[in-house]
Structure formats: C-alpha cells, structure tokens
Give the backbone structure.
Amino acid sequence: MRIFVIEDNPIYAEILSETLNPEGEHQVEVFSSGKDAIEFLKFEPEIITLDYALPDMDGSTILKKINEHSPESNVIVVSGQEDVSTAIQLLNQGAYDYITKDNETQDRLKACVRKIAAKLKLEKRVHSLEEEVTRKYNFHDVLIGKSKSLERVFKLMGKAATTNINVSITGETGTGKELVAKSIHYNSKRASKDFVAVNVAAIPSELIESELFGHEKGAFTGAQQRRIGKFEEADGGTIFLDEIGEMDMNLQAKLLRVLQEKEVMRIGSNQPVKIDVRVITATHRNLEKEIEKGDFREDLYFRLMGLPIHLPPLRERDNDILFLSNYFIEQSCEENELPIKKLSAEAQEKLIDYNFPGNVRELKAMIELAVVMSEGGVIHSGDLKFFKRSKPTHFLDQEMTLKEYNARIIQHYLEKNDFNILKVAKKLDVGKSTLYRMVKSGELEIK
Amino acid sequence: MYSIKNILEVGNGNKKFVHKILNMFVDEIDVKITNLKSAMVDYQYTIIADITHQLKTNMKLLGRDELSDKAEYIEKSAKQEKCSQKCFEYLQHLIQELLKIKKEIQTDLKNGKI
C-alpha cells in the first residue's frame, strides 16, 4: 500500500512511519506541510495519516483537498487535541478515523490499518467479481450464434443497455429470456446495483404483493417483521419480472401505480417509498391476445412494453443449431476432461431436422448427454436422445396421407378434451362410431 | 531523566530505531530551544504554540508526561495569545529540562548505555 504521513514533527513522523510499516512492506512517504502533501495527492495513496494542527493549514482544509484530489484515500486524523467536536466534524467530512496522540496511538493506528487493508482487499475482490460478472454477461457469451435473427437481438440489447427504457422480452421457453435480462443489466449503468429476478408464476397469488412491495410488521397475520419488497431491493438497479402474463388483474393495477408514481407502498404502510428501478419483463404468452381476452391490462402493457425484444426459437436461427452444438460439445468435453468430439454427418442431419421445442436449453442438455454417452471421438445420431416429442413447425410439412392427417387432428382433440369421445365427435362433427373404429384399429390412442 | 520504553515498543525492541529517534531529538532540540527563546522575547505566540505542540508529543514519547502537560499548557496559552507568569515559569522549566535530557541522551549514546 502507498501511505502518506502528513506530520510536521519529524520525530513523530518517524514514529508513525515505523508503526504503519514495521515490516517495510508498504511505501511510506512523509510530508511536513499540507501544501507539499497536496501536490502529491495525484498518486492516490490508500492511507493518509493527517496531523490536525499543521503550521500551514488545518486538518479540515487538507481533508477537503484530499476529498477533491484523492477521494478513495482513507484518512486517519492523528491529533494532539482531544476535541470531540473537531473529531465529529472531520469524521463527517469523510475521515476514516480520528486518533489522539497518546500512549495508545500506536495500537489504535495498527488496528486501523489492519481494518483498512481488509476493507481494500474486500473492495478489490468485489471489483474483480463485478468485472467477472460483466464478462460473464457479455452479449455474445449469453446468446451464442451467428444467425441474422440473433444479430437483430444483439442490436436491441445494445440499445437497451445504453438507455434506461423498460424492456419486454418474449420468446419460447429455453430461448434465454432471463440471461438476456441479466446481460442488459450487467452491461448498463445500473450494473453496480442489484439485479432482482422474480418469477411471477412461481409465487402464490396471496404472497406476491408482499414479495414485490414488502410489508410492515403486523400488516397481516404472520407478518412478524417489516420486510423490504423486491422493488425496494432493486432500487437503483433492475427488477426482472418473469412470466408477467401470469399476474392477476388486481396486482396488475398495483404494479401500474408503482410504475406511474415511481414509488412503492409496503402493505400496512401509508408512507410511499421512492424507487428508481428499471423494469424488464418476460413472458412466453402473447400479451396482446391476453388483453383481447381481458386477462391483461392494456395500460400496463404499454407501460411495460418499452423496448420489445423477441428471442427467436432455435429452429428459426439458421445454422445456429450446429454452431451451438459444437460450442456445447467443446464446453462439455472440457468440463468432463474428454478429448474434443465431433458430430457425424447423420447426427448433424438429425439435429437440423429436429424442431427443438425446448430450444437452447434442450439442445444443451441433449449435447451434454451425448458427449458423455458416446464412445470414441465421434457423436453418432444414435447418441442424440430427444427429450421432447418433436412438434413440427408446419403441420402440413410432414407429408402425411389424408387419413393420417385426420387421425392426428382427432388425436389432438382427444388429448385436449380428456379423451372424451362423445365431446370430440360433436366438436369435429364426425360420428362417434367412426372414432371408436379408429381407436379399435389403433389409429387413435386412448389413455 | 528520560525513558526509551515507548520508543522501544514502537520499534519492536529495535535498538537502531531507538538510536535514530534519540539522535533526531538531540539534533533538533538546540534549534527548537533557540527559536523558543527568541519567540518568548518577541511574544511570537504562533511560534511558541507550534514548537510546544511538537515538544508535547516528544516529551510523552520520552516518558516525561509532566513536561508534556506543561508544554500543552504553554501551547494553549500561546494559542490564546497570552502568557501568564505561570506560563513563563513553565517555559523556563521546560527549556532547562530539555537541555538536561539532551545531555543525558548524548552521554548514554556515547557510553553505549542504550
């Protein structure tokens, strides 16, 4: 550490230098006047010990200059005066500690330096972790791919990260909605504050209001303590409301008020709390349709929409399936300490033909399993196990016979109607005997 | 009379460090006394306050707390730009004691007593 000792008494300056640096591991520089020290503040020492009573200026004036030129420095005022009001004034001005010159000065100074060193170590660690998080949430590390549809998403993410606009993310399950939300947050000016994620669908409706807005002690049965809500927790940062389409109408009205007023009211309180939160929402639902059905407020929709980002499903991302597959193979081989494997031509074909209803999440799981299960350096089509039944993008692309199409349509209705044959026959305007016959012949499945 | 206990503590028993501090004291004390005497004659309170402020700490370091208290009294008086009879008596006593301490340190250093 670089330490400045600002002390006009040469003997005491020597004593302080020895106390601060007994092992000689720090760089200690002594200044006998405030003026001399101020000139060197550009070197931003981690610690400064400051004699309050210097011949050329008082401690308060120097402290002001230190705050201006080297605000990160920890200033320990070492004074011959036991004046409480001066001590309070200097501590209010930002001094780290105030120590009087007496027999205990050395011990207190050593303790102070130990605390500062620990604090600096922690700050350094936090800083490096923050950098790591930012690196981790680099746009191109979050969404892997080279497709044009993804390029459009990157552009929108960039816009979102450099502005403060609310963002609404849509996309099928497994497309990476939460990762995109996090990436926008950690690449924005709000990165040093919290990213708070709330899955609206995962919290019981009776708890969600308290979860989002907090509550006061005794606000309801079981509220034994005051609790800060997620919005307050995210103050200065970002709140990510996942599955917003699942929010009930009553809560939607309350959320709208929060967004309009930029303040929350804890349950059981009538004191609004000002908040500065960026809201990112995500849903797999079509909110416009929900509005038409009367299940989602239009005014809230417009408040939340902000910058809409649609994450394309994997099947619509050109050659990203193979690009991502190779990326996951490499990652998985590295994690499992295996030599890098390759996909056979048939395996590549199989992957391209599949429609990935579970999107990237499904592909990743499939590849990870294939890497472990495959023998040798090649992953064959047989090593690729699909987790979900493939649902072709276009029903008519399957090139089935009319008879097969009929069976597929009827099967779909049966599944949707709890295999109630009478109900399905009525809906599709076909005879029930036709359906029974198809079941008997094995064209239809009844569970 | 003086004590090196406090200095030894700071220097973790390092004799070289003790010698360094004592030599610094011996080297600067004459100038301090001369300046103090001339400031007394000219009633230069700021100089009196600055010097006694330093002596207050140094005396404590050398285990002479009663001299440190006297230096503090003089410093406070000088800051208020007044020096009573008591203040002058303290000053004279302080100067006499400083000279004695200096002599004692010089002898001890010369005889290798420290």
About this structure: The helical segments of chain B are 5-10, 15-42, 45-61, 65-79, 85-110. Chain B touches chain A through 21 residues (CB under 8 Å). The CA atoms of residues 11 and 17 of chain B lie 6 Å apart. Chain B has a mean pLDDT of 93.
